[in-house]
Inverse folding.
């Protein structure tokens, strides 16, 4: 069967890796098994139990193209997703009135809202794992539930939020049990003992977020889920249909360097390197270096992060690009990273940078780190090292003509453990902002 679906959920051609074929083959096998099972029934077995006959699309399972099979699977997925978003059977039974009618108003169930909630969970599962290299990692069910419940700006979840996470987790447990047979996910359900404990408590007390001190086996008791290659394909297709961004490694290869550098910060390290390598395959070293350097210029807030990505991408470019890097040695924004590249590639006769460029590159680098990781431990160590190596660092730093100078100095004051030095940094930040008006 022709390779159709790549391991990241992308459409793939005949040169894609074997995981892609697994996704298309798997969908055909699931439909084929059902078809073969129904054909094996004897007339006696069918009598009195109802029968099923092949529809117009049944022939596509064995004779259609891989795309035909995937389209059939996507149609089946829609049906199963609708079932997964339906009310719990126990809730339905409780909602039946004395007269035998179903009290839908008493269910507190909105079909559109339930379907949207499940789509959000699946999209988050895709975004959490799609760009990871190799086999996609399984995600603990509490972490997945928390991703759709806990607000991004909440440092410590409240008891009410934890309770909601628990309820969502148990709902997802039921839903993933339904979604696994169609091949969307590989799922390890929540431990039955935990479910019983949850059901027996007057108020839900399973605290799924409290897993930091648990070993891998303990965490897995709360449920583990991963999208299959077929699932990655299906969820990505639904996300794209909904107008959402669904990144996949390799999709930036034909884009400009500006798009590449804008999007790379959201990629895991291994995926970012793979994306850059595929992007470079379509360009010669000199052409790639020139395009990357041009995209790295700018004074906007995202520019430092682009230049950091530019430097990382350039590290994969060969020595043939050296003349292009030498062309920008005098450029205030690019001269510093060009010198870094030349030094790393063993180039000779690289001129020393002027002090103004050194300080500009320092501010730019810290601004990029702040944009990427915020107030990280690594950045704190960098700040301590910089201040320790340069006497009168802040007296020079506040004069640096960089849009982020004030923010960087304020961050240095926030991060440096020495109170006296931290105060100097804050004073320097005030001066920098006053100078800019």
């Amino acid at each position: 069967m022709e390779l159709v679906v790549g391991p990241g959920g992308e459409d793939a051609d005949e040169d894609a890796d074997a995981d892609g074929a697994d996704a298309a083959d798997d969908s055909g096998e699931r439909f084929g098994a059902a078809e073969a099972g129904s054909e094996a029934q004897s007339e006696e077995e069918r009598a009195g139990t109802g029968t099923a006959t092949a529809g117009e699309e049944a022939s596509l399972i064995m004779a259609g193209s891989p795309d035909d099979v995937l389209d059939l699977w996507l149609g089946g997925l829609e049906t199963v997703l609708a079932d997964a978003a339906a009310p719990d059977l126990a809730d339905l039974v409780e909602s039946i009135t004395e007269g035998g009618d179903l009290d839908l108003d008493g269910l507190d169930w909105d079909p559109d809202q339930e379907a949207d909630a499940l789509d959000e969970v699946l999209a988050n599962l895709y975004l959490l794992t799609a760009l990871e290299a190799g086999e996609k990692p399984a995600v603990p069910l509490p972490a997945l539930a928390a991703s759709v419940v806990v607000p991004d700006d909440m440092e410590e979840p409240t008891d009410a939020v934890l309770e909601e996470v628990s309820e969502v987790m148990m709902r997802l447990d039921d839903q993933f049990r339904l979604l696994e047979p169609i091949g969307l996910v590989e799922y390890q359900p929540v431990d039955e003992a935990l479910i019983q404990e949850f059901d027996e408590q007057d108020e839900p007390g399973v605290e799924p977020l409290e897993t930091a001190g648990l070993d891998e086996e303990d965490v897995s008791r709360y449920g583990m889920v991963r999208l299959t290659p077929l699932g990655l394909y299906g969820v990505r297709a639904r996300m794209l249909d909904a107008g959402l961004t669904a990144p996949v490694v390799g999709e930036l290869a034909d884009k400009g360097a500006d798009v590449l550098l804008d999007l790379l910060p959201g990629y895991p390290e291994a995926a970012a390197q793979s994306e850059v390598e595929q992007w470079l395959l379509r360009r010669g070293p000199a052409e790639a270096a020139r395009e990357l350097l041009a995209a790295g210029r700018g004074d906007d807030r995202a520019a430092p992060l682009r230049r950091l990505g530019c430097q990382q991408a350039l590290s994969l470019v060969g020595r043939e690009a050296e003349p292009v890097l030498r062309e920008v040695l005098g450029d205030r924004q690019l001269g510093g990273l060009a010198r870094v590249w030349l030094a790393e590639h063993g180039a000779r006769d690289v001129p020393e940078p002027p002090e103004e460029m050194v300080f500009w590159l320092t501010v730019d680098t810290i601004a990029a780190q702040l944009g990427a990781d915020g107030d990280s431990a690594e950045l704190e160590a960098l700040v301590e090292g910089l201040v320790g190596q340069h006497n009168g660092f802040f007296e020079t730093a506040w004069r640096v003509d960089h849009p982020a100078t004030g923010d960087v100095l304020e961050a240095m004051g926030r991060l440096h453990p020495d109170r006296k030095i931290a105060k100097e940094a804050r004073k320097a930040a005030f001066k920098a902002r006053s100078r800019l008006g």
Remarks:
- The longest strand covers residues 185-188.
- The beta strands are 139-140, 185-188, 224-227.
